[in-house]
Task: structure prediction
Amino acid sequence: MDARNGETLRLHSTNMSPKGDPGADTSGSNHLDSPGKGSVEDDYDPHLHRETEGASNNIEALVNLLKCSLGTGILAMPQAFANAGIVTGIISTIVVGIIVTHCLDILIKSQYWVCKTKRVPLLTYPETMRGALSAGPGFMRKLAQPSAACVDSFLVVYQLGICCVYIVFIARNMKQLVDPYQELRTEWFLLFILVPLMGFNLIPSLKMLAPFSMVANVLTVLGLGIIVYYVSSDKKSQEPLDLWGSAATFPLFFGTVLFALTAVGVVVAIENNMKTPKSFGAPCGVLNTGMTLIVVVYVVVGALGYKFCVSECSDSITLDLPNNWVSTTVLIMYMVAIFISYALHCYVPVEIVWRDYVKPRLEKAGSQRLRLWEYVVRIVLCLITFVLAAAVPRLGLFISLFGAFCLSALGICFPAMMELCCSWPDNLGPGRIKMYKDIALFLIGIIGLVAGTYTALVAIVNSFM
Result:
């Protein structure tokens, strides 16, 4: 499965113990690691008040983080390196990995601080954003209330974007299999998978999807192993490697790497479900260890895949494999895995739209057909992803677009804003260094969002000309 899986739902699951009082909202010292003078009672630790069934230990959490990071994002890394050049690609992937890891760390610490000041064991990402901004400078406090809806919007767009990527991935790989026998347009394959995916998306429970998720994980790991073997033992193109790439295409690389590396939902879900959550963000804890290994794997796959096909890299490295029975098996395994993963990812926007926006209004109106309306929401959201995929069947550009637009905000800008607010005004470090660091991160996120989104949209338009 991909780094963005069904566990992202935990972003919107507030698991409160009776020991916590969600109504207690007292102000405190704005420090991410510990409350300080004037804060709520120092003895309240949100971690100790969580009631989590089947909590995972450190090794299990690390395995979950690793296995959830092998999906369509990693398959697009060779093309990302083609946009950046091999030297720039290696260095930039490491730098982006460091930035993303740091931002995920401060997101988790911000969530802990807001939970501590509100004396609740757990908060969702939107609630954490609202709570953090409420403690910040005056102009930030004015943004606190609408910030939750803003986070929800980005999460919905992001998850639907992943679903669009998955649809195009399945259709493109089906076309790769069928083309030797009968050449058809990609749009026909989109139609072939519409009804099966829509039916699979009507499954109402994550528990019912869990066995399918296990199958998807096994198929993905096996498929990736075969791909690495092929690209390291053969060569598709004899072109010389581009070492430094082009500034014009670098934003496409940035969007793809963000899409591949930034696992906001998985990271929050895994930390929330740990027996010892304090070890998650430790110097050699689950987050740093897992992200280090993930970055290494992504650099290896990107570099080997780019060396294999150079400028001829397709949107997904699976489309560049030799035409034989082994590569056919890899295509089928990934298609099945991504088909299963589609329902898991579509579950998240369904929950946000249905539970937080549609269902409350229907209950207020006295509707007696809530289950029917839930199915309607599922079908409508599924159709939206198909319309977008059919309108722009460009896998690599989709990945860059949604990576730059959504994850620059969710993975960089928002965590930087939260840390600044939680540290305001007395815990910004010597010379207010933390403030300048967070401003720099915010600017990096904004530049990545604007430049990456613009470049991807221009490339999408040009691809039709």
